[in-house]
Amino acid sequence: MAAGGGSDLSGRAIASGLESVVGQTISVENLEGGGGAVGYAAFMGDEGDASYLLATETALVNLPLTEDVPFTWRSFTPIMKVGQDSTIMVVPTSASFETCADVVDAARSGQVRVAVSGGVTGNDAIQFGLIEQDQDVEFQRVPYESGGEVIAALLGGHVDVSLTNPSEVMGQLEAGDLKPLCVIAEERYEYPELADIPTTVEQGINVTFSQFRGIIAPGGISDEAKAYWIDASRTYVESDAFKEYMSTNYMQTDPLFGDDFASYLETYEADLKAGLES
């Protein structure tokens, strides 16, 4: 995960919160590359060592479905899902697009340049791909290494459209530099700052996508170690620090722990696989 990105922010927030619970220092290390593949592959080397945790998100599931990687989510021990967030499609305020349906219509009659971070199998690519499948259109994809580069490219006029998490773009939305077209979801955000943004489903685009965030431990840890981190996580989600992290980053709170998190991952994997094969 790259420093300053959503996974980095999530990992540091959770680490800080767990420190207060367990009374120990939790150091954070960033491992970049392959849209998360490098970090997950390296984490396999910590098999059985419960002193390590890894901040995780949807790449844990979509990488094994779309790339030749040596792991699946079952290679690790699910500890806690803190919640999820839905992506917002944004454009410069000066753009003629007012809805996501406008973007789709433009793609039918010409080229629409869309920014894609995280590689050809990252969340951006998957979501644009699902829209292409649902609407029978094709976008011109422009790859970038990070969400920060995507926003810079959008503001600089190098691309027409991008997808982003609310926490990564609220500053530009509030400043009036960018405008939101839709949320890639079935239901709108409840946060007042985002509640007026319509969904893809409202605009006739039958595509939804939520990015979960949480933590995992290495595979092969003891039942006692698993219970230790789950108990610590349950205490963390009751704290003011957790509530502040979720609200500051406009996350939708839905904590799950241990086996319940594993069941969520199994369903998420099946749904994503079905969407990619449709």
From TrEMBL:
Belongs to the UPF0065 (bug) family. This is Tricarboxylic transport membrane protein. InterPro entries: BUG, Bug_dom1. It holds the Pfam family TctC.
